[in-house]
Each structure stands twice: as C-alpha cells, then as structure tokens.
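Q: My collaborator sent me two sequences in one message, no labels, and asked for predicted structures for both. Can we handle them in order? The first one she listed is below.
A: Yes, handling them in the order given. First sequence, followed by its structure tokens:
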Amino acid sequence: MGAKGLIETYKPKLAICVYHKCEDPVSIVEYLAQLVPEYQFYMRHYTYSQHETVLYAV
C-alpha cells in the first residue's frame, strides 16, 4: 500500500468508492481504522443500484 505512510502521517479526509467488491466496506474500514484510529466513518449511497456507494473517512 503506497499511501500508507502518507495516511498515517497526514490523516487526510478520504472519499473512497466501495462498491467494487462486497467485502470492501468492511475491509477498508478495518484497514483505515488501524492506520488512523481517530477516523470517523460515514457511508453514502447515491443511486438505486449498487454503484456509487462512497465511504468517507474524516
């Protein structure tokens, strides 16, 4: 993961599309929570299909 150090150091706000794999929402939250325990996570769905689901880490 090339951005791991940057995320740990700078703790940027992130918007990540999580509709590619069923396990993405859970696995990405778990991974980011290990890197930055202070992150709060929000998910927003923008369409009626499975597409356009975005995870926010702030």
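Q: And the one she listed second?
A: Here it is, processed independently of the first:
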Amino acid sequence: MRSRISSYSVAMSEAGVVFVLSLLLVAATSGQEVQRGTGTIKGTVVDATPDCSPEKCEKLANCKSQEEATQVLREVLGGQPASGATVTVASRETKRTTVTDPHGRYAFTGLPTGPYTIYAVMIDSEGKPRWSAPRATQCDKTVPLVLHGEFITVSGRIVDPNGRPIVGAKVTGTLVPMSEVGVPETRGAVSGANGFYVLTGFEPVNLYRVAGYLNGGSLDAPGALQTQVEIRVQAEGFRQDPANVPRVPLIAETQLVPGLRLWKALAQHAATMGDAERWNEPQECPLPASRGNTITGIDIVLNL
C-alpha cells in the first residue's frame, strides 16, 4: 500500500514540551483547595501502550480459536489498568490529586459544582512518562482516562485566496464524534507570521481501528477509524466556508507500520478461521501527509 508521507517535519520534542507545559499550567490553576462541595468525579485509568511486535502479531495470526485471538488482541492493543497513576482534577478555585488503586480506579468527592479539567500521569517500569490528554468535564461524571507515551500533532497554514499567510487566526481542532463524557475535546492555536499553526496533544487512535481503516479505506468501513479532528478557523475580515472545514483522520506515519502488521495478522487469522473476505487487501487510503507523529500540510484557505 502506498502512503503519502510529506518530507516536512515538526520537531516532536518541541511539541512534547509544549504539551507537557500545558499540563503543568493546568495543574497550576489555583494551588490551594479553598472550597468543598458535594460533587464527585470518578473513573478508571488504563495504559494504552500497544505491543504490536512481530512476535506478538505472529502469535495472533496462528491462534486456533476466536477466543484465543481475542485474548491475544487485547495484549497487542494494550489498555490494562494503570495502578499507581497520579490523577489531577483542577478548576479555577480547586486543585486535587489522587493515586489510582490496583485496578486503575480513582475518585474525587466533595467537589464544588463547576467545570473541571482532569488528567493522569504515570512513570512506567523503564522510567518513561505516560500521560493522558487533559479532558474537560463536570461534577458527577465518570471520566475514563487513557495513558499514552506520545501524542499526535496536526499542522498546516492558514492563507487567503491568493495564498498569502493570515496572521493571528484562531484555529480550533475538535475531536469528532463527541467524547464519551459529552464535552467536546478541543485543542487550540493561533497562526504565526507565516500563517503556520500547530495543534498538539491528540490521542493516537487504537491500532485495531487503524487496521480497520487501512482494510476498507473508508471512514464507514466496519472496524474503521471513528475519530477525526475537525478544524475550524476564525480570523477578522475572513470567513471559512462550510465546504472548507477539514476532517483529518488521526493516523500519522508512526502508526502505519504497526497498523499494517496488525492488519496482516488479522487477515491471516481470519483466513485460518474460514473468513478470509473479512480483511481485504489494504487500499490506497485517503491518509494525510505525515512525518513521525506529526500530520502535516493541513492548509486552510479563508475567503474574504
């Protein structure tokens, strides 16, 4: 399968620093807890680091039953409870932290009513940090948090009909469909002097969905990608036509190799089980250009 990979690159170390700093800024919002209420926020933290090694995929391909394959697939995809992760919930008036139990569960009680941001951080056995994307929520919600070692960045330029850069445009990327807690997940940026923008901190897509997307080449295919980023832009004196609101599949270069490896293992297992037609030859999928974990070239033209 051919993929359109751009030669353009954004330094992921810088993007990672920006994202981590954003977490620290959230945590710094009012360092003292000054109010108590009756609200609760609870949930479970899981570590979604996949193990899509050749050995694990070969084990999946050679499974003799669907039950065995399901168990191995869980091992490949990750998603085990994260014991000992530090969870922080913060608002303008309140900040609290807690640690997950052996089952990855956490709970905050006695919270004042209002909007909150919540996220989790953990150091793995190799000393590497994993963190969840900050999520907006309200009291009395169950908020699942997913830890990742790296996140996806989306970048591009905002220009006028003549290709001239638009400076100071407000760019908002919203995950679609809406999150499980009913609050849209968004990332924001402002275009720079050359019209360039960078949206950081998008969670990578589950590799099973990546394999499904590669399998069908359609956002509507069974098992296909369900999470995209819808990008809207506001700039004084300009407008964004509805037909020019891109929806970007969250698949970057680093996910293609493990995604294809998983697809091959699933196809081999399906053939063994007499269901070879379920996983077809990967198609020329409409993937955005990318480099590493950065999706590039998402340029948007605004009209006068």
